[in-house]
Design a protein that fits this description.
homodimer, Thiol Ester Dehydrase, Chain A, alpha+beta, globular, 6-stranded antiparallel beta sheet, 175 residues, 4 helices
């Protein structure tokens, strides 16, 4: 490897490292801020013991224990599953607004659809997909131009690699 | 009024009275049984302090206090509103199964849609429409023939005569 190639490789690596480390630090600050916000401002999320497990550039993973969220059949309660998906997709909208440096106090769900495919028999894990960079850029543009933007967010509750619940919600962010 | 007309009128009145009194007694026993079932078997309904307010031939009215079910904006949390509608429509399915003398242990929501039109600023009141006699008869026939039946139930959260949330869910009852 020539010295020039080595140097270029090193620059690319350090940019990658910087972005990675930057995401890890900012991400963990945001997770802490989000977790505190949910438990302090939305008491039901604390009663349900909803926790933020992971947030990366692809998804947000949230969790809730089965015991508090159980139903009469010994599986997860439909209301808990619905709440998990609604708050997880809301959280994704909030995280996006934070990353766009908009500390919005007004993010609301306006409609949602849930489809319950299989009962959940263990602790509930909810996977919320981060919208694409293109979609986020459109949101940023609308927020700048109009002061509000809507976005579709999808969450799924998955157990043993099988989808138990599918969710799609429409959220509105206002500056 | 002739004696015959008087007698007929008295019979009609007593049948009406009987049905009315029968509904009041059976209805209040069912409300108590439902309230106990929810709080004992689905802990989140107790944590949310959901109560059964009224059940008649037209609707089921349920309630939950705002304070436990509040969000970061000081209005009712979307997850609580969704849970209220899901469990209220589930309760209607359970009440129907009880009235058909089927003590089903297997009633589940398979899909639902929520539309959030206005924020809820006070205690949450949810109104769940009882399906028509025709619809209930179809359910009874399917349960008898196939051992399972699905039914659509609608709930609305109303405040000051205005609809804040509309819900439609599909439930499956199995014998």
């Amino acid at each position: 490897m020539t010295e020039i190639v080595k140097a270029r490789f090193s620059i690319i690596l350090s940019i990658y490292d910087y972005n990675f480390i930057h995401f890890i630090i900012i991400g963990s600050i945001l997770i802490k801020k989000l977790q505190d916000k949910l438990h302090n401002e939305i008491p039901l999320t604390k009663l349900m013991n909803i926790s933020i497990e992971e947030y990366n550039e692809k998804e947000l993973i949230t969790k809730a224990p089965l015991d508090i969220n159980i139903n009469d059949k010994g599986t997860a309660f439909g209301g808990s599953l619905s709440t998990m998906t609604i708050i997880s997709s809301w959280s994704m909208s909030w995280l996006i607004s934070q990353e766009l440096n908009i500390d919005s106090k007004n993010i609301v769900v306006i409609k949602n659809e849930n489809s319950y495919k299989k009962p959940v028999t263990k602790d509930i894990y909810c996977y919320t997909i981060k919208p694409s960079i293109d979609e986020i850029e459109k949101v940023a543009k609308k927020l700048k131009e109009k002061g509000s933007a809507s976005l579709k967010i999808k969450s799924s509750i998955i157990e043993d690699n099988e989808t138990c619940v599918d969710f799609e919600g429409v959220y509105v962010i206002k500056v």
